[in-house]
Design brief:
The complex is a heterodimer.
Chain A: E1 17-20, E2 32-33, H1 34-39, E3 46-52, E4 55-65, E5 69-70, E6 75-81, E7 83-91, E8 106-107, E9 114-123, E10 126-130, E11 135-151, E12 156-157, H2 160-163
Parallel strand pairs in A: 3-12
Antiparallel strand pairs in A: 3-4, 4-11, 5-8, 5-11, 6-10, 6-11, 7-9, 7-11
Chain B: E1 20-21, E2 33-35, E3 38-42, E4 46-51, E5 54-59, H1 60-72, E6 79-81, E7 86-90, E8 94-99, H2 104-109, E9 113-118, H3 119-133, H4 159-162, E10 203-206, E11 216-218, H5 219-224, E12 236-238, E13 241-251, E14 255-257, E15 262-266, E16 270-277, E17 283-290, E18 293-297, E19 301-318, H6 323-328
Antiparallel strand pairs in B: 1-2, 2-3, 3-4, 4-5, 6-7, 6-14, 7-8, 8-9, 12-13, 13-19, 14-19, 15-18, 15-19, 16-17, 16-19
Classes of the chains: A mainly beta, B alpha+beta.
């Protein structure tokens, strides 16, 4: 029998949920669906869907070209829907980089000067390293959705009451 | 010894005596084991665990599946409940082995028992037992539809299965010197239930001089080739944030009691989680997760997963040292965000 693996997308997802069977409350599970979250987001907003102290997983609706970002620490990008390219530049002017202890992604004012490091062509299920100290830009021709493993920072948006079951 | 949970304090004495094991039983061929006040023996169907306060009998296949996870994970984070009666609590250097301590009926009856061991000694006992009690053809890491039986008299062993090591990336899979992708050549064929998952890897166009600095791989392909169930690997580390994806099928063989918050991100298919109170086991919630769903497991619960088809789950852990003490002391709330 051929198996069918069920993936989801912004246009095609079915949400589960929390049922209380004892002394508990649904909100404590911070339950959301990443595709529902990004269906209600603006492109490139980074909505925090999971948080563990300072660490985050942020859901991003990807359409067109993103701003350029950089980060003092590694991040990763898991493409959950669509296709994208990720372009990397090693900034030549290190004074433009965030300090080493800065957490989370930093949006740059434009494409930075520096050496081109290369690019990655990704499709659904591909996990890309966004290495510390590199500048990067996402490019998606169609609608795509990215989960970013990062740290709470200036670009992180928390709106738990809007996205979670309660 | 009847022990209230609050009495199991950090100054509990640690038993540092190694385990003992018998010669093979002349009738069924299995060895018997003892460590501290506990003893373990198996017959053709069951494992029998005895403590100074009582006896507990467990289906042998369930017992071996539970013990396999406890051994492979080095006692994991917090509580590994083999079932509603026995299990371990990791104190990171020492470990509690208990009978009924996290079951309110046992505690009320005063029949609970806990003993703390040096972690390496208890691990050595469990490893030896696992090797001796696992017969040829039975893989405790495999889904029930993918393996034979552990039942019956002693019939060889399956060291290759019980010695399986999960892959732990230091930074990111495919970086030079780090974990590798899974391929046929490495002995990771596509699982029967993921035959439709794309096997295409991303294109990596590195400029000269930057090879090995930019990296990407197909995580869904990686998971489609996982040879085990309920056994997370690590594929990326951001500071102390670890992506621990895993493929799941049938039932998580333990009830994991959290000593910290962890998160589940359902990448494909569906898993239902039965959630109970960490201390008593009383039911609290059922969390049904479908593809794209995200849910935390608070630091004050235990959970057990049910996956009707092989599914892809991203387990997300915080590896910051000492977190268990910060949650236990109340410094950190059991839920990581409030609204």
């Amino acid at each position: 029998m051929d198996e069918q693996t069920v993936f989801a997308s912004i246009d095609n997802y079915t949400k589960g949920g929390v049922e209380i069977t004892g002394k508990d409350e649904p909100w404590r599970y911070l339950f959301s669906n990443m595709f529902e979250v990004t269906s209600n987001s603006q492109p490139w907003e980074r909505i925090v869907v999971a948080k563990n102290l300072e660490f985050t997983i942020e859901a991003t609706r990807a359409e067109g070209e993103s701003p350029w970002y950089t980060c003092a620490h590694d991040e990763t990008a898991l493409l959950m829907q669509g296709a994208m390219e990720v372009h990397f530049i090693k900034p030549g002017d290190t004074s433009a980089l965030p300090p080493e202890d800065k957490e989370g992604a930093v949006r740059l004012s434009g494409e930075p000067q520096g050496a081109k490091m290369g690019h990655i062509v990704a499709s659904r299920g591909h996990l890309t390293l966004l290495p510390a100290g590199a500048a990067y830009q996402f490019r998606a021709d169609g609608l795509a959705m990215i989960l970013i493993q990062s740290v709470l920072g200036d670009e992180s948006i928390e709106k738990w009451a809007e996205i979670c079951q309660h | 010894m009847s022990t209230a949970i609050k009495d199991i304090a950090d100054n509990t004495p640690i038993n540092t005596t190694a385990h003992s094991e018998s010669a093979p039983d002349p009738h069924n061929g299995y060895r018997k084991y003892a460590i501290g006040g506990f003893s373990f023996e198996r017959d053709e169907y069951f494992a029998r665990i005895k403590s100074p306060t009582g006896t507990h009998v467990v289906d042998i296949e369930n017992f071996l599946r539970s013990m396999m996870r406890d051994v492979a994970w080095g006692f994991f984070y917090g509580w590994v409940n083999f079932d509603e009666v026995i299990g371990t609590v990791n104190h990171y250097g020492s470990v509690d082995l208990y009978m009924g301590t996290y079951n309110s009926a046992y505690r009320e009856a005063g029949t609970d028992y806990t003993e703390r061991f040096d972690s390496q000694n208890l691990l050595a006992c469990f490893k030896s037992m696992l090797k001796d009690w696992t017969n040829t053809g039975f893989d405790p890491f495999a889904a029930p539809l993918e393996t034979g039986t552990a039942r019956g008299p002693k019939n060889g062993n399956n060291d290759a299965a019980v010695d399986f090591q999960r892959e732990l990336a230091d930074r990111f899979v495919t970086l030079p010197g780090d974990s590798e992708i899974r391929t046929d050549e490495r002995g990771f064929p596509v699982n029967r239930q993921f035959s439709d998952v794309s096997q295409e890897e991303p294109e990596i166009h590195a400029e000269p001089g930057f090879e090995g600095e930019i990296a990407a791989f197909n995580l869904f392909k990686y998971l489609s080739r996982s040879p085990v169930t309920w056994n997370p690997s690590i594929v990326s580390i951001v500071k102390n944030s670890a992506y621990c994806p895993t493929s799941e099928e049938h039932i998580l063989p333990i009830d994991h009691g959290n000593d910290r918050v962890e998160w589940f991100i359902q990448l494909s298919d569906e898993i239902s989680w039965r959630v109970g109170d960490k201390d008593s086991g009383a039911p609290r919630a059922v969390v049904t997760m479908k593809a794209g769903d995200v849910s935390c497991m608070p630091a004050d619960i235990r959970h057990k997963g049910f996956s009707p088809k092989r599914s892809m789950l991203l387990v997300w852990e915080n590896l910051t040292p000492g977190l268990e003490k910060r949650y236990e002391s109340g410094e950190l709330p059991p839920v990581p965000a409030e609204f």
